[in-house]
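Model the whole thing, not chain by chain.
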Amino acid sequence: MHLSGRFLPWVAAIAAITLVAGLFWGFFLTPDDYRQGSTVKIIYLHVPTALMAINGWFMMLVASLIWLIRRHHVSALVAKAAAPVGMTMTLIALATGAIWGEPMWGTWWAWDPRLTSFLILFLFYLGYQALWHAIDDPDTAADLTSVLCIVGSVFALLSRYAVLFWNQGLHQGASLSLDSQQHVDNVFWVPLVICMCGFGLAFLALVLVRTRTEIRSRRLQALLLRERMA
Amino acid sequence: MPDLGKYADAVLAAYGISLCLLAAVIALSWIQSTRMRRRLEEVEGRSSE
Amino acid sequence: MIAVLTRDLKLAIRSGGGFGLGLAFFLLIAVLTPLAVGAQSDLHARMAPGILWLGALLSCLLSLDRIFALDYEDGSLELLATSPVPMEGLVAMKSLAHWIVTGLPLTLLAPVLGIILALPAEGYFWLVVSLALGTPALSLIGAFGAALTVGLKRGGLLLSLLVLPLYVPTLIFGAEAVRAGTSGQPATTALMFLAAISAGSAALLPFASAYALRINLR
């Protein structure tokens, strides 16, 4: 708590700076793509949020495992704190993808594997949070949501391959592989990396804030309980 | 303001919606955080009396 | 373990409501969809695999909360938990009982509903096979969802929210198998995936469900 309290302003500040700088660079200073026109600027929102949406779930999975194995209370709260942030990232990725798809593919929505997987990921986030809210006892809630998160991860992966089987899509392949033959031009690549760092740090800062809120909430419950006992 | 050409609506909408959603989750986290801190301080103050 | 199975089956048959309701719901979906999309039977023929699979999935969902809820309320679940039968076995048997009273009748009813949805003649075999292979997974995943929500007052809606995303792979492979089979394409890959999901769920999910049940009984 003390450590996170000392780090939080720094993380938040760096996150804000990189995010603003990256998006500013992306929005104002990059050229248009010769095929996509100015819509290429949407990539600075779409790719980092999509990345964080998946990393958010992965973070929840790791935190859930730590909770189940080591019974470390903070990790359960981290998982709980990460869920709404991850869900927002998923939503942004879906929304920007739809807006980009309309002029480029001629449709807001296509039942393309990547899009469908993201929608399913969104549903997983929704169910996970609903379970947290439904259970009163915090330890039971932490246990059950952790189990759900682990089983859900397996099925989310399965869904990923199932939709690939179901429909070969429109979505382009990864634009970010590290060998430079594959990935996009440096003019776009540098601000994109800055945006990814920015969104990553913003995610971290938000999870820290929310985890601290959850810890305080636990403490509050404990104090209230003690008052009632006395 | 850069020249966005014919896709200006799409780009601006994407940035608008994304920043709104991002602002919403930041504001929500912030409000919840300050509210929880205030309530905790209140109860802590009460119990130390 | 066999005793648990026969007991559940007897209870289900005696109380009646459970599986009859699921079948009626399945029938209703098959009747209502053509009413909603119009009367062209070529359209129905194309949609039939999807409708039937979706219908089977939703009717399965309908009776999930009964897997553990009744036993939880009257306390017999706690008795069963303290019995020498391992919890995992108990969950597996209860899933099996659920499958026998819902999945199996659904599989048998589906060809009849295929007729009113104008499913082409080649499709029936694949429909029955895919449902037979896929519905066990539905029951097992459902039992996991039911185990998670067993202690909750209004778990029903939450249960659907939790379970439906988990049903996605089963639904995709199941409907895909029927669709491919109907149009004469090879359907065995999808069927193999479906069987793998069922087998994997049978092997692993009872452990997760039993874990969740133990937490809820704490």
